[in-house]
Design goal:
Distance between the termini: 22 Å
Number of helices: 7
Structural class: alpha+beta
Helix content: 10-25%
Bound molecules: pyridoxal-5'-phosphate
Strand content: 25-35%
Order of helices and strands: EEEHEEEHHEEEHEEEEHEEHEEEHE
Length: 330
């Protein structure tokens, strides 16, 4: 049952009248069955998920629409469905239904009364305080946090990729489609290698050497007017945004091919872009010190990106079904 401890509201105005900046600790989160201030959401260092990374999570965005004074949660249901499937992969049963989870996510966001773009992270984690590497016979719990969040990567000027020397964790090692917390150490190696070498993002290959995805984003290239993206069997996260991009391409009459992509195909591609909840739609203009296409953002990447941003901001009726309005707190 939920207990209500709704103490973390917008901060009191300072004596001068200006609101103090919100600290994460002041935000309300959902933690182990109750809404509590983030500062009170604490786990033991013995928590299994802390010791072994045995947790699954989702990253969901909500976009503030100033005209309608509403936050629009983006594809919440799809994320919730993926979260539940992934939790079952980690042998977690007795999960809240899709409707219950969706309701908890919306309520967490609503209680914070955000008037800006937000990142929402629900996570099921192994909460038993036990030593012992395994998945079975362990308790699990749920948390949901929601934070103000802007761009994760520059979507305007074009991203530069570096082919990573790290391979994507293969399905037979840590399921790539699982969005498993421990697996993200793999992405951390990729992202840091790319950034410390002066690039924006990593292009990560499967153990077989096919292009898989970026460190936290799915990959698309354009060749002769066709959008190409690797199949879900090439060790990718089955991205919610990837499906959204394929829907946009269909509506725009742009052919889509789902097939494996060689590393060198990026060198000869006309265009390239990344997509994901974090990166949104980010055109790529270079890889490994080579320009992709003209070295400028290509027309198809630009079109997909612009449609995507119009859609998530609630400006396109045909994509309204992606959005769940989250009204202001009463
Ligand atoms: C490894 C990885 N690939 C792809 C994506 C994109 O998935 P989605 O569009 O569901 O956010 C993410 C998450 O953002 C990710 O972490």
């Amino acid at each position: 049952m939920l207990t209500e401890n709704d103490t973390a509201r917008r901060p009191e105005p300072s004596p001068a009248g200006a609101p103090k900046p919100v600290q994460n600790d002041d935000l309300t989160c959902y933690f182990e069955g109750a809404f509590v201030p983030m500062r009170d959401a604490k786990v033991s260092i013995m928590t299994h998920a802390f010791m072994y990374g045995t947790a699954v999570f989702e990253g969901i965005r909500a976009y503030w629409n100033p005209d309608q004074r509403v936050l629009n949660g983006l594809k919440i249901r799809e994320h919730v469905e993926r979260l539940r499937l992934n939790a079952r992969m980690l042998l977690m049963d007795d999960l809240p239904s899709v409707d219950e989870l969706t309701g908890l996510i919306i309520e967490t966001v609503r209680r914070n009364d955000f008037h800006e773009d937000v990142y929402i992270r629900p996570s099921f984690y192994k909460s038993s305080r036990q030593i012992g590497v395994r998945l079975h016979h362990l308790e699990h719990e749920l948390y949901i946090v929601a934070l103000p969040f802007g761009n994760y990567i520059d979507t305007e000027s074009g991203v530069r990729l570096m082919s990573s020397s790290w391979r994507r964790n293969a399905d037979e090692a840590i399921p790539a489609r699982g969005k498993i917390v421990g697996g993200y150490v793999n992405m951390a190696f990729q992202k840091s290698e790319a950034e410390l070498n002066g690039f924006d993002e990593a292009l990560v290959m499967t153990p077989d050497g096919n292009a898989s995805e970026a460190s936290a984003a799915n990959l698309f290239i354009v060749r002769d007017g066709t959008i190409v993206t690797p199949p879900v069997t090439d060790d990718i996260l089955e991205g919610v945004t990837r499906r959204a991009v394929i829907e946009i391409a269909g509506n725009e009459g742009i052919p889509v091919a789902v097939r494996s992509i060689d590393r060198s195909e990026l060198y000869v591609a006309d265009e390239c872009f990344l997509c994901g909840t974090g990166v949104q739609v980010s055109p790529v203009v270079g890889i490994d010190h080579r320009a992709i296409g003209s070295g400028e953002i290509g027309p198809i990447a630009r079109l997909v990106r612009d449609r995507y941003f119009d859609a998530v901001r609630g400006r396109l009726a045909e994509y309204r079904h992606w959005l769940t309005p989250i009204g202001e707190a009463g």
